[in-house]
Amino acid sequence: MAKTSGGSSSPGSRGRGEIAGIPTRVIAIGVIVILAIWFLFANLDKVKIQFWVFTVTAPLWIALLATLVAGGALGWLAKGRRGK
To answer: Model pTM greater than 0.70?
Structure first.
């Protein structure tokens, strides 16, 4: 008898890595996004950001958002290289 890779075929059963039919990866990403937004809006003060040559005054949430976006981009690029 051949094995099927889908697991149980009954309509009410959940696959591995799912909660209420939603993949756990999607839930984890959603939780991280919500926590990041909450953290950004909890830090609305203005700060001085010093680069090598110049200094900028901006809301802290913008600096945090820029760091979050840069980290996400680097993670995405690193993931692409790892697969090759």
So the answer is: no
What does the pLDDT look like over 36-69, one tens digit per residue? 888 878 888 999 989 889 999 999 888 888 888 9
Convert 67-83 to b/e letters by CB count within 10 Å (16 or more is b).
Answer: ebeeeeeeeeeeeeeee
User: Which parts of 1-84 are beta strand (E)?
Assistant: 18-19, 22-23, 46-50, 55-59
Determine how many CB atoms are found less than 10 A away from the CB of residue 20: 6
Per the listing, tokens 């090598």 go with 52
Phi, psi of 61 (to 5 degrees): -65, -30
Give me 46's structure tokens.
Answer: 């203005």
Query: How long a stretch of residues is the chain?
Result: 84
